[in-house]
Amino acid sequence: MSSIPHSHGVIFEAGRLAAEIIETAARDREEALDAREARLVRQETQLRRRERDLEAREKSFKWQPTTVIQRLWRWFFIEGIEEPEEFQCKFCHETFNNPVRAPCDHTFCKACIEQWLNERRSSKEPKRCYCSRELTIEELRRDRDTERAMTTAGLRPVWLEPVTVV
């Protein structure tokens, strides 16, 4: 009979340890779920931010057929060639398409700068380049120097629309 109280103590201790293990496992699972939920919330926030950025870029830049042709041309003929930053438009971040030069010597895609200036036409504030110089559509000129430099670098500028800068 002396073994019965001893076995009750062992059983009691085993039950207590099992309850402790179950409680610890439940707590660990809850913490893991909380961490996973927090990670999912962060990822969802990042996705929403990317969607907003893409929507804003889509609204600010009207896709031109020449841009699509230019991208296809680049993909077929110069894929893998790193484009120098000097040949990238500050608006669309693509290789210049119909490059035009402002009086401040900055170059842009014709469609990008015209769209940017036209969007700000209703505003009474002066339209300023990122260098703070005031811009008007009348001051823009076809940038033949950039065209020659792009041709030399193997990045043929695309002039697929009539050259009339208004």
UniProtKB/TrEMBL annotation:
Record Gene3D superfamilies: Zinc/RING finger domain, C3HC4 (zinc finger)
One of the GO biological process terms: proteasome-mediated ubiquitin-dependent protein catabolic process
Ranges of residues in domain RING-type: 89-129
InterPro entries registered for this protein in UniProt: Znf_RING (IPR001841), Znf_RING/FYVE/PHD (IPR013083), Znf_RING_CS (IPR017907)
Alphabetical list of Pfam families matching this protein: zf-C3HC4_2
Signal peptide (residue range): none
Record's keyword terms, sorted: Metal-binding, Zinc, Zinc-finger
Membrane-crossing residue ranges in chain numbering: none
Single annotated GO MF: ubiquitin protein ligase activity
PROSITE patterns reported for this sequence: ZF_RING_1, ZF_RING_2
Superkingdom classification of source: Eukaryota
PANTHER family: BIFUNCTIONAL APOPTOSIS REGULATOR
Annotated protein name in UniProt: RING-type domain-containing protein
Organism, as annotated: Roridomyces roridus
